[in-house]
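User: quick one - fold this with acetyl coenzyme *A bound?
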Amino acid sequence: MSEKATITLDGQTYEFPIVEGTEGEKAIDISSLRAETGYITLDFGYKNTGATTSSITFLDGEAGILHYRGYPIEQLAEQASFLEVAYLLLNGELPNAKQLQEFEGNIRYHSLVHEDMKRFFEFYPSNAHPMGILAAMVNSFSTFYPKSQDPNRSIKDVERTIFRLIAKMPTLAAISYKNNLGHPYMYPNNRLGYVENFIHMMFGLPTEDYEVDPVVADALNKLLILHADHEQNCSASTVRIVGSSQANLYSSISAGIAALWGPLHGGANQEVIEMLEAIRNDGSDLEKWVNKAKDKNDPFRLFGFGHRVYKNFDPRARIIKKSCDDILKKMGINDPVLDIAKQLEEIALRDDYFIERKLYPNVDFYSGIIYRAIGIPTRMFTVMFALGRLPGWIAQWKEMVENKEPIGRPRQIYTGATKRDYVPVKDRK
Ligand code: ACO
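Assistant: Sure. Structure tokens for the protein plus acetyl coenzyme *A:
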């Protein structure tokens, strides 16, 4: 592109190239800014900063558009399987039948978790949060598979690590749930599909036959696809920045899990249900809670509302809201919390505070209601998000490595004390 941005500093004008993406997004490439001018840019929370170019996910927050590798999220959620989408994110193209079969076979092959790892679970408090366990366990994989720690590992080793991660995460998640219940762990059943196998490990018991309900499997498949990637969000950026130091992939993903856990990010799905239940238990006075969220002296926020990039609507929330109705109907469940959620959305969307700030329901607003309907406990909601986001994190890491991106290292403007001399303790006032 021949267009340039000019910046005038201290009376001198500098030119910087404009970079344009395939969907017309534009950026000023300021890579040489500091070297040329001595200035840096300052952007708290990276609200205007592009940290990379990426060909994985496109989203337009104003228009409510989300594509994985060019495919609209609506089509993928409706028609694809989660492993197909994982393959797409990782490899850039949808798999043909043979490629998909091979990919599924590789995942199946690695679904067991090392028996020694089960012993770790004995030492967690019974009420340990499953996200804390998941982050620790995924990091522990690097100690079981030391080859993964070598930054110059072969492509085959990297592939194996990717298969292991995708294969073992559901097994770990299910073990942590069973551990919490005090129930025996269920081994994976490799005759089942990926999503069905997870449901089997979560809800099956060795004492009885367990049939996976296809309605539940469909619902979960859709939710996992909707969460599978979301370009440079907090956890994906964390994975990329940790990986940029050539830390191993397991540890990079573990860091992503920790970032996701926060209530302003993936942890919001647990907060939403707890909030909706609190509203119900408080007599369903919705205006009162909306006013609390608007009150700047009250730290309460309407969880599941607002998004850094979506300023019109979150397309994932639209799909989930509709699925929520369908699934509850199919399962014959009448959840009063769904009515509260819908009324809360209606009130907030009519309110000037939310209109002015462009705050709309995000992906987490309705997902918890589906998780609840299929029997996933509230504290496991963010684990479900992590299972879905895993292929996206890995694709982001892989792209960063393949692009040979430099170590991530932002700068700062120092605002502390200027140089002063040390005073020995005895002379200090
Ligand atoms: N309830 C009430 N007010 C809100 C909310 C909310 N949920 N979200 C934003 N606001 C207000 C802020 O107080 C701020 O008001 P001000 O301009 O008067 O100070 C304004 O809207 C802008 O909000 P910011 O926090 O500056 O926006 P930012 O882009 O930094 O944050 C975020 C986005 C973190 C998602 C925010 O909207 C939020 O906290 N939402 C609730 C938590 C949540 O649902 N997180 C999940 C996001 S989706 C995901 O990560 C998977």
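One thing worth noting: The pocket of acetyl coenzyme *A is lined by residues 45, 264-266, 268, 293, 301-308, 357, 359, 362-364 (CB under 6 Å).
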